[in-house]
Amino acid sequence: MSETIENQVRGKSRFLKDLSRAEIEAATGAVVLADGSVFLGQGAGATGTATGELCFNTAMTGHQEILADPSYAGQVVCFTFPHIGNVGANQEDEEAASDQARRAAVGMVSRAKITPPASWRAEQGFEEWLASRGIVAVTGIDTRTLTRRIREEGMPMVAIGHARDGRLDLDKLVALAKEAPTMEGRELTREVTGAAAGGWQSADWKWPEGYAEGPKSGPKVVVLDYGVKANILRRLAGAGARVHVMPGSSSAEDVIREKPDGVVVSNGPGDPAETGKFALATIRGVIEAGIPVLGICLGHQMIALAIGAKTVKMTQGHHGANHPVKNIETGQVEIVSMNHGFAVDRDSLPDNAKETHVSLFDGTNCGFMLTDKPVTSVQHHPEASPGPQDSFAVFEKFVGSLARG
Ligand SMILES: NC(=O)CC[C@H](N)C(=O)O
């Protein structure tokens, strides 16, 4: 008879001193919080240890895209959806736009054991994919308890471990969790930005053809890559842009030399204020040159910083595929994909910034536009992947507004 989920779930939080030797020896995976709480479970994916900020994601599907999203670098993702693995993994759902960007999420935590794939699109089992990406995973964990703790106490630093032989070094995990640097003040985009500038060819996915080719003519959009998600590039191409990706370290002069009709400031991991230390000069230079700009997520936060506003660390963050966002201009509510742990402080926005979107979960800022420059910016993920496509039109609107190059 197959094991029930209840039998697989041992992972209530305990402290190391309260665990018996037999319990520790029976576990092949563990999640350890910086306060010393230990959740024992089963290891999966890559063996070894990983440390990062623990966040929860409520998406019911799209787990490959989530863990492949470079914005999750330095984070361990706890899925609230219990069953992981049904869809498996496939090359078409890759969200890393460059080899460097494959260093995304460092860990995954789930309630049930990872199941074998049952999708016609699967090319690989999810567990194999996790291992191939170096993602350490722990299953059999009481993810509801973990999520409640994040909701109440904020996102903790954790160390997770997977030891195939059952010899978990919990003392080491406790030490790693305690030493782990918090997300505030961390610059992680240099780890996941593409090394070289270059064109991007593929556009939207359609069944049964797969990805379409991007256009050969049309406005040229330079994307400043801080760990850009591939579907942002595909959506820009799908909306009619010729897409040229440049490393996030590029200067405003480098960007202007490309003669772009528009510039996108991408999503990415880490603390926007820290990345802003080298990126803000470029973003300001591009805005001041009068080039139309679209910001997405980290890009949104950094544009806010570039115009003199502030960003703040959120308590639990927004990570999911069902977040309601109100478009203040149209009054319409869009259900969107979200992934951020920092937010723009609305009260710090200067007079020339008009708020355009707001989260209906907690009222935080989700978008603004400048009244004196062609700049629009959103906190959520209009490219979805995974998630609903309610905000796809952000790309058509931006590309459609650009003068033909
Ligand atoms: N998806 C993103 O671009 C994330 C932005 C930023 N790292 C945050 O967590 O808020």
TrEMBL record:
Which reaction equation describes what this protein catalyses? L-glutamine + H2O = L-glutamate + NH4(+); hydrogencarbonate + L-glutamine + 2 ATP + H2O = carbamoyl phosphate + L-glutamate + 2 ADP + phosphate + 2 H(+)
This protein is called what? Carbamoyl phosphate synthase small chain
GO biological processes: 'de novo' pyrimidine nucleobase biosynthetic process; 'de novo' UMP biosynthetic process; glutamine metabolic process; L-arginine biosynthetic process
Which InterPro entries does the record cross-reference, listed alphabetically?
Anth_synth/Amidotransfase, CarbamoylP_synth_ssu, CarbamoylP_synth_ssu_N, CarbP_synth_ssu_N_sf, Class_I_gatase-like, CPSase_GATase1, GATASE
Has UniProt tagged this entry with the keyword Protein transport?
A: no
In terms of superkingdom, the source organism counts as Bacteria
Taxonomic source organism: Marinicauda algicola
Q: What does this protein do?
A: Small subunit of the glutamine-dependent carbamoyl phosphate synthetase (CPSase). CPSase catalyzes the formation of carbamoyl phosphate from the ammonia moiety of glutamine, carbonate, and phosphate donated by ATP, constituting the first step of 2 biosynthetic pathways, one leading to arginine and/or urea and the other to pyrimidine nucleotides. The small subunit (glutamine amidotransferase) binds and cleaves glutamine to supply the large subunit with the substrate ammonia.
Q: Which family does the entry's similarity section mention?
A: Belongs to the CarA family.
Q: Which UniProt keywords apply?
A: Amino-acid biosynthesis, Arginine biosynthesis, ATP-binding, Glutamine amidotransferase, Ligase, Nucleotide-binding, Pyrimidine biosynthesis
Identify the pathway: Pyrimidine metabolism; UMP biosynthesis via de novo pathway; (S)-dihydroorotate from bicarbonate: step 1/3; Amino-acid biosynthesis; L-arginine biosynthesis; carbamoyl phosphate from bicarbonate: step 1/1
Quaternary structure annotation from Swiss-Prot or TrEMBL:
Composed of two chains; the small (or glutamine) chain promotes the hydrolysis of glutamine to ammonia, which is used by the large (or ammonia) chain to synthesize carbamoyl phosphate. Tetramer of heterodimers (alpha,beta)4.
UniProt lineage: Bacteria, Pseudomonadati, Pseudomonadota, Alphaproteobacteria, Maricaulales
Q: Which NCBIfam families match?
A: CPSaseIIsmall (TIGR01368), PRK12838.1 (NF009475)
Classification via CDD domains: GATase1_CPSase
